[in-house]
Every structure is written in C-alpha cells, then in structure tokens.
Specification:
The chain is α/β, with parallel strands linked by helices. The protein has one domain (25-267): Spore Coat Polysaccharide Biosynthesis Protein SpsA, Chain A (Alpha-Beta Complex), CATH 3.90.550. The protein has 7 helices and 10 strands. The strands form 2 sheets. An 8-stranded mixed beta sheet has the order 1-4-3-2-5-8-6-9, with helices on both faces. A two-stranded parallel sheet has the order 7-10. Helix 1 (49-59) links the parallel strand 2 (36-42) and strand 3 (64-69). Helix 6 runs parallel beside helix 7. The longest helix is centred in the last third of the chain and has 19 residues, at 251-269. It starts with 24 loop residues before the first strand and ends in a 12-residue tail after the last helix. The structure holds guanosine-5'-triphosphate and magnesium ion.
C-alpha cells in the first residue's frame, strides 16, 4: 500500500509535457463553489472522455466534475484539459505517470476536500456506470430514520442491481470478492468492488491516510469506513460492460489486488496487527 501525495499547489493549465513531464498539470484553479464533485479516474479513455464529461455534467447540473488522468499515452489528458477550458464545472488533474486507480480516486477526494466540497462521487470513465444514477447515489446519502449514510455504493448485487455484458469469469470473480469481503474481512456489503459511489468527505478525516493504490482501494475504503463506525448503504444499479476502449484491470492489477485483500485479512484476524481495530457494535 502506497501513501498518496497530497495535492500540489495549482499551476493554471499550461500545455507542458504531459508525458514524462516533471510536474502534474491542472486546469484553471478558478472553481465555482460547490457541494458535489464527481471524480473520474482515466487511463487511455480518449474515446470516452468527451461524451462522459458531457453526460455527467448534463445529468447532474448542480455537480462539478474532476478528471484525474495519469498521463494517458492516448492523449485523454490533453482532450480533457481542452474540454475544461470551455466549461467552468469541469476540472482536470493530469499526473506525471500511471499511479493506480485507487491513488487517482484518493487524490480526487483530497482535491474535493481542499476545494470545500462535502461529497465526492467516484465513477469509471468507460460508461459502465450510468451518469443518470448519480442523483440516486446522492439521495441515498440523505438521512433515513435520523442517520445519514457516509458511503452509498452503486451495487450490482442487491435486488434490482444487475450486470450487462460480463462473461461468466468476471461474474464469478466479482461474487468471490463479495464473499471474501463479507465473510473474511467482516464488512457487511454485497458489492464491495463497485467503483461507483457517493462518499461524504467528512468520513475521510476519521480514516487513515494510506490505502491500496490499485483496485483493492474499494474494499480497503469500506473496511476502514466500517471499522470507523461509518454507515454504508447500497443502491441497485445496472452495470454495463465497456463498449469503447479496453480494460486496464489485467493480471498484474488483479494480483496486486489479491495481495492487498490478503493484507486486509491479516489486519482483520491477526492479533497485534498494527491496523487491527475492534468491529463497531
Ligand atoms: N488515473 C488512473 N485511472 C485508471 C488507472 N487504471 C484504471 N483507471 C481508470 O479506472 C477506471 C476503471 O478501469 P477499467 O479498465 O474500466 O477497469 P474495470 O472497470 O475494473 O474493468 P472492466 O470491467 O474490464 O472495464 C477507468 O475509468 C480507467 O480509465 C490508473 O492507473 N490511473
Ligand atoms: Mg471498466
């Protein structure tokens, strides 16, 4: 697990070399005041980025959006920076190189908090997550019976949720991760690996600053949220396999994710483990 660097001071969008450059590149630092920031991490999503940003900003007119790109070789970052010049609700951070999905989302959350947003929504940039569902996730954070939720997961594994277009192998993997998270990591959620969530940023202040930098970020954040006494709810969504671009969740990312999940299992069960915390009542 790698620590994620805090956001660097803003430098207004400069063309600068995005690939192998010495600094991160940011769009303009003039952000309107807002409550909800949608964070989309991107790596080689050049065919998706323009329609996705347009769809998100149209579906949630009160929200703003941040694209966190890891200097995608296909030029996603450059396209996003150009789009941001035309829309004050769209913001872009292009980091110096590939640092992982979890790291990108966590940095997006840090930027959101630094700009005074109360809620961040993270979603994939490949249209697997429907921008029209963002408002349902936000609504699920609101108090029911007096208590507000800290995390609302867009869930494929609660009644009403479903997956379109996945092969059997992906369905089995997702089910296994769900079982492992519930039964071994003792976190009571059905779809812990969903990358579509609304998060109250206040909860982040009660969690440690280090998380898995890759795909296990999702389970890791829930593990810590649950142990910190945070409330997690699940909202049914339809997840549609990507149509444009290719998956980045390859074998290496999967192996890194398994190692991170095993570390969390050790923290769950090994007495004396530095991360070990009692489960909430
Ligand atoms: N910034 C950044 N984004 C990443 C990185 N790896 C993946 N992403 C983005 O994270 C999101 C999820 O990645 P996908 O490749 O779609 O992975 P997935 O959704 O788990 O797998 P598929 O179902 O095959 O699409 C996409 O928007 C990617 O572009 C990374 O290292 N850095
Ligand atoms: Mg995807």
């Amino acid at each position: 697990m790698e620590p994620v660097s805090p956001p660097q001071p803003s430098a207004a969008a400069s063309p600068g070399p995005l690939h192998g450059g010495a600094h991160d590149t940011r769009s303009s630092d003039l952000w309107p005041v807002g409550r909800v920031l949608v964070v989309a991490a991107t790596y080689n999503e050049v065919d998706n980025i323009a329609p996705l940003t347009a769809a998100v900003l149209a579906a949630s007119p009160a929200a703003q959006m941040l694209v966190v790109d890891d200097a995608s070789p296909d030029g996603t970052g450059e396209v996003a920076l150009r789009l941001a010049e035309e829309n004050p609700r769209l913001h872009v951070l292009v980091r110096r190189g590939r640092r992982g999905l979890g790291s990108a989302i966590l940095e997006g959350f840090s930027v959101a908090a630094a700009h005074g947003f109360a809620v961040a929504v993270n979603m994939d940039a490949d249209f697997s997550h429907d921008p029209a569902d963002i408002d349902r996730l936000l609504a699920a954070l609101e108090p029911v019976g007096g208590r507000a939720a800290d995390v609302a997961i867009g869930s494929r594994r609660v009644p009403g949720g479903r997956v379109v277009g996945w092969p059997l192998s992906r369905r089995i993997t997702s089910a296994l991760v769900g079982w492992f998270t519930r039964c071994v990591l003792c976190v009571p959620v059905r779809d812990p690996s969903s990358g579509f969530r609304a998060v109250r940023l206040g909860i982040m202040q009660r969690l440690p600053r280090k998380f898995s930098s890759g795909y296990a970020f999702f389970e890791d954040l829930l593990w810590h949220t649950h142990r910190a006494g945070g409330l997690i709810v699940e909202v049914p969504i339809t997840f549609t396999d990507r149509v444009r671009g290719s998956s980045k969740a390859g074998l290496q990312a999967a192996l890194a994710g398994i190692c991170d999940l095993l570390r969390l299992a050790a923290a769950t069960w090994l007495p004396g483990h530095p991360l070990r915390r009692p489960l909430p009542e």
